[in-house]
Amino acid sequence: MATTYPSLAPFIFKRPWLANMLKPVASWYTSAAGYRQLGLRADDLIVEEDENVLKALKRLPPKEAYDRVYRLRRAFQCSATHKLLPKSEWTKQEEDVPYLQPLIEQIHAEEKEKAALDSLTVVKNH
User: Is the pTM of this model over 0.90?
Assistant: First the structure.
């Protein structure tokens, strides 16, 4: 079943002043993480050991799946040689859009719906 992690995101997004205050920190953290300097996107960092992630990877369009594998292999090569990509090849902020997370959320919703339907009890009126 779906694993949920505690998140402060809903609390922060309900308070625009807090979101505006934390936005520079979030931008700094994202750039400090370094995955964009290797040409990766945030969804490339999702661990593939979860069953739902594997299902989501199977649902990816062929081009998106190929691009993901290419980005991962290129990042592994950069890591092995201890070099970063040229700045022109870094992932830009506008390119770093979720492509796998929506599929994972869809799979979680489908499992939740299936569990609800499986536990459904029928009550007959006489």
Answer: no
